[in-house]
Amino acid sequence: MEAAASTLFGSGSQQRLLTADAWRAVGITDTLCGLHPPMPDTTLPETTITSAPLATTSSTSASFSFTSSEANSTFECSLDSVAFSTCTSPQTYKSLSLGPHNFQVYRGR
Asked: How far is CA 92 from CA 26, 65, 109, in A?
């Protein structure tokens, strides 16, 4: 039997060992095993508005509920292009003028 080489990647606390064991013997196949860095999470969290007022209403208040696909998210909201600020769900606005309004929400940092 023979064993293949090991390679050390990184430095300090980021050091990872990748070992390729190539055992050549009857009935044993080649394997690749080792310790390597975890794959980064590249999935972007999604923010979903789960409830909102009707598109046409005579109410002067509006309430919006929303969630994120990522636990413990914080949010920022904006109504009618005003600067975004920290908010929680549900976000309620009162004393609105009649007419169209634009609500935006995103998961904060």
From this structure: 71, 9, 22
Whole-model pTM? 0.61
Task: Report CA 24 to chain centroid distance, whole Å.
Answer: 44
Give the range of the structural domain holding residue 84, as residue numbers without chain letter. Answer: 47-107
Question: How many structural domains comprise the chain?
Answer: 2
pLDDT tens, position by position, 44-95:
789 999 999 998 889 999 999 999 999 899 999 999 999 999 999 999 999 9
User: What are 70-75's contacts with CB under 8 Å, separation 24+?
Assistant: 70/45, 70/107, 73/45, 73/47, 73/107, 73/108, 74/107, 74/108, 74/109, 75/47, 75/105, 75/106, 75/107, 75/108
The verdict on 9 and 60 lying in the same domain is no
